[in-house]
């Protein structure tokens, strides 16, 4: 808050000059007419106008306090957004976890299915190979 203050001060100075002349007591009777008292009064009036611009400390205090809470407000909104994203990813990963859990078991059994399938064909191929070898041996034996 900027405060514009116009201060008008009126300074009145009064100067009193008193001059006293006194003769001695011996010549008082003769110079009674020569005793003179002079009083001079002079009055001077001075008017001074001063314009001051004052910036109060409270203005800056509340100014920075306002911006502190202004940015603090956005920081709180950012924190709230991160918190919501955290909950979102938590629940997303929660279901994602179960998705991969079943996905894992699917491939787990799928793996064992092909594992046994592989060994089945492995032994099946060995069996076929043995059968072919026996057939070849039989043909050779029959030929001779």
End-to-end gap = 121 Å
Q: Unreliable stretches, pLDDT < 50, 5 or more residues?
A: none
Strand order of the largest sheet: 1-2
How many distinct helices? 1
Rg of Cα set: 59 Å
Query: Percentage of helical residues?
Result: 55-70%
The fraction of residues assigned to DSSP E strands is 25-35%
Transmembrane segments: 71-90, 97-115, 121-142
Keywords: Membrane, Transmembrane, Transmembrane helix
Model description:
By secondary structure, the chain is an alpha+beta fold. The protein has a domain at 2-55. The protein contains 1 helix and 2 strands, in the order ββα. A two-stranded antiparallel ribbon has the order 1-2. The longest helix has 87 residues, at 57-143. The N and C termini lie far apart (121 Å). Keywords: Membrane, Transmembrane, Transmembrane helix.
Summarize the structure.
The model has no long low-confidence stretch (mean pLDDT 65).
Task: Compile the SSE list and pairings.
Elements: E1 2-21, E2 36-55, H1 57-143
Antiparallel strand pairs: 1-2
Keywords:
single chain, 144 residues, alpha+beta, two-stranded antiparallel ribbon, 1 helix, 28% strand
């Amino acid at each position: 808050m900027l405060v514009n203050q116009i201060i008008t001060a009126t300074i009145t100075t009064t100067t009193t000059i008193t001059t006293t002349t006194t003769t001695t007591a011996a010549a008082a009777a003769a110079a009674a007419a020569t005793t003179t008292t002079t009083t001079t009064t002079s009055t001077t009036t001075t008017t001074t106008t001063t314009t001051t611009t004052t910036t109060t400390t409270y203005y800056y205090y509340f100014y920075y306090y306002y911006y502190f809470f202004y940015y603090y407000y956005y920081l709180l909104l950012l924190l709230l957004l991160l918190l919501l994203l955290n909950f979102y990813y938590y629940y997303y990963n929660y279901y994602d976890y179960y998705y991969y859990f079943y996905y894992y078991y699917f491939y787990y059994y799928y793996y064992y299915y092909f594992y046994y399938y592989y060994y089945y064909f492995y032994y099946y191929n060995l069996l076929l190979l043995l059968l072919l070898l026996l057939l070849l041996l039989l043909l050779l034996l029959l030929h001779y």
